């Protein structure tokens, strides 16, 4: 509130950040606004329809579940791995393959976690890659589990690639996705809610197409 220590104007990347300026930063609302993060839309090309299956040798009958981002616990990769283990072992859904693209300090631990949970044959750690757009548009479902996002570019990329996207209902995620229209919002850190969303999409290709087409239009 002291002018010499305060910016003339604050611009957030989402309404969530805008509200934090006011509620947490005690900035006057007349000094704040927000402009959504954006991306260059992904150009979907038919020639990449089977790209991920060809690169990673994934059978046609398997559902590809993909996520991108740094391999850290903050990004929730451990949560996704544990949920995938329940999907495969407890729910007996064996025809799923999880792909994680990204490097990071916890990658080795996540690989060991997948081995300990007995799902190493269902999980692919792709590491840092320069073909993420091709992998996204040739996958079936995108998932996200980060503990916090201002306005996630990864989620926008999933949507732009025409993917049915499953994300936690917190921070600004609900500003990007309308639940049941262009994606699915689940209760944060609720494994059953996450698992039910993934299983529903894995068994319903029409729902995947509906959400993916709407998501692409939204972007």
The percent range for strand residues is 15-25%
Strand order of the largest sheet: 5-4-3-6-7-8
Order of helices and strands: EHEHEHEHEHEHEHEHH
Give the tally of β-strands: 8
Largest sheet: 6 strands, parallel
- What is the count of helical runs? 9
Task: Give the gist of this structure.
The protein has 219 residues and is of the alpha/beta class. It is built from nine helices and eight strands.
Description:
The protein has helices at 15-23, 51-56, 77-90, 107-116, 132-137, 153-160, 173-176, 191-203, 205-218; strands at residues 10-12, 32-34, 63-68, 96-101, 123-127, 141-143, 164-168, 184-186. By secondary structure, the protein is α/β, with parallel strands linked by helices. The strands form two sheets. The protein has a six-stranded parallel β-sheet, sandwiched between helices. The protein has a two-stranded parallel sheet with strand order 1-2. α6 links the parallel β6 and β7. The longest helix has 14 residues, at 77-90. The chain is globular, with a radius of gyration of 18 Å.
């Amino acid at each position: 509130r002291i002018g010499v220590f305060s910016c003339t104007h604050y611009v957030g990347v989402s309404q969530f950040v805008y509200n934090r300026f006011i509620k947490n930063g005690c900035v006057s609302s007349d000094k704040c606004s927000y402009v959504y993060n954006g991306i260059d839309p992904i150009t979907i090309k038919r020639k990449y329809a089977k790209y991920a299956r060809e690169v990673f040798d994934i059978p046609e009958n398997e559902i590809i579940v993909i996520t991108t981002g740094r391999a850290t616990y903050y990004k929730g990769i451990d949560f996704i791995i544990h949920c995938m283990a329940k999907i495969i072992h407890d729910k007996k859904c064996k025809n799923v393959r999880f792909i994680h693209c990204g490097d990071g300090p916890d990658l080795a631990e996540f690989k060991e976690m997948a081995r300990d949970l007995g799902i190493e044959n269902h999980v692919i750690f792709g590491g840092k890659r320069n073909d993420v757009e091709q992998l996204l548009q040739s996958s079936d479902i995108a998932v996200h589990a980060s503990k916090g996002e201002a306005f996630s570019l990864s989620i926008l990329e999933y949507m732009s690639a025409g993917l049915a996207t499953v994300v936690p209902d917190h921070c600004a995620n609900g500003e990007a996705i309308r639940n049941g229209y262009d994606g699915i919002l689940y209760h944060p850190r609720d494994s059953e809610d996450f698992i039910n969303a993934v299983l529903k999409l894995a068994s319903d290709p029409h729902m995947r197409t509906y959400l993916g087409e709407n998501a692409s239009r939204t972007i």
